[in-house]
Amino acid sequence: MTTASWDGSASNIPSFINDLFSSSVRDISNVQNAVTGGKHNYSFASASTRGLILNAWLAAWQHHNGDSYDSTSYSQCPSVDRTIVGWLSDFIKNNALVQYTPDLTYAGLQSTDSTIGIYSNSGYKSKPFLTDGKWNYGVVNSDGTLSNGKYSVDTVVNFLMHIFFGAHFVVVSNSGDLNGGNTVNQFWDSFISSDLDRGGDKFNSHYSGANLTGYYYLDIYHDKEPSSNPLLAALLVALTDPASADDLIAVTTGAVPAGIALADAQSRHSASNTFIQLEGWQNHFPYAGGWHGKDFDSHKATLWNFSTFGACCYSEKRCTPIFLANSKFNTTLDSSTKMPLYNGATSVQSWMETSLLQTS
Questions:
Q1: 3-state helix, strand, coil in the chain (%, to 5)
Q2: Sheet holding 357-359, edge to edge
Q3: Rounded to whole angstroms, what are the CA distances from 66 to 59, 160, 170?
Q4: Range with the lowest mean pLDDT among 34-43, 284-293, 325-334?
Q5: Do the strands 117-128 and 357-359 form a parallel or antiparallel pair, or are they unpaired?
Q6: Which of 165, 281, 322, 331 could form a disulfide with 312, with the two C-beta atoms 3.0–4.6 Å apart?
Q7: Angle 15-19-25 (CA atoms, 0-180°, nearest 5)?
Q8: Quick one: what percent of the chain has pLDDT higher than 90?
Q9: Which of 322, 357, 347 is nearest to 163 (CA)?
Q10: pTM score, two decimals?
């Protein structure tokens, strides 16, 4: 078995999730072959399964917004997935966000014995989510490929596709990054102050050695599908400018540990942008040998991101994040970081692999 399949039945989601994390499906050589083949992503799910999942999420988005939808696809979307899909669509609409995606071309391997690919970025392309108040949905074909259909652009399904493959999204809210544009609510603050079910991330490696600001959608403690049968089970939300653990305590509880200025901690957090990324599974203890830990080993071998359903090259560590920002965001590639400047990445940092990206 090289890919996992699902028939659209809720009762079969647990076995589908287990298959996704089987050693044959998650064999790193399949991802490495995708890298050397010049691909930008690889699917652990079969083509027809990818079509079912993306169409389920699309139907949930359309239903939430009162637009026409496919009733069969909607019935195949777990209720907990409908909740987060609707919440995401509201946040995007209320903050007039646009998707900015790097235009990447495979340029070869890091070295002759490497499994780490290098890409060239010719710049960022924008896709508006709404035009004249109407969603640019696009179409998901039965084999999981995308097309515009009757829409001028396919932004919604393109966004969902990148979520599916684990792309790293930066949701830009820092006013300086938006060049004085309309205010965008901080995604992180909106998420943790909502009534969405969430669990705390133990730690993650994004933007620091140990980013302690992460929360997951849903609260899952084991390498096992919960009874609510979600497909979206490991959506991580965290800050791009993470402070210390003491700062985080100060911001979230109001308690001020010794030596911490609450105002300074709050200022840093409020200025930070947010990243969102669908990981393979939630990071919980014990870490060693678990689904998340094995995915992180595969990530280190390729510097691709690994989601529940696939893997892709859109990573802040590669300097290839996707941005969700308003129209005032400047997508000019910085000569040093090789990506647009934003709070959390205003200069070259130790976590950036700038040698893996070529720019014009």
A1: 30, 20, 45
A2: 198-200, 215-217, 235-239, 274-278, 169-171, 322-325, 98-109, 117-128, 357-359
A3: 10, 18, 28
A4: 284-293
A5: parallel
A6: 165
A7: 170
A8: 81
A9: 322
A10: 0.94
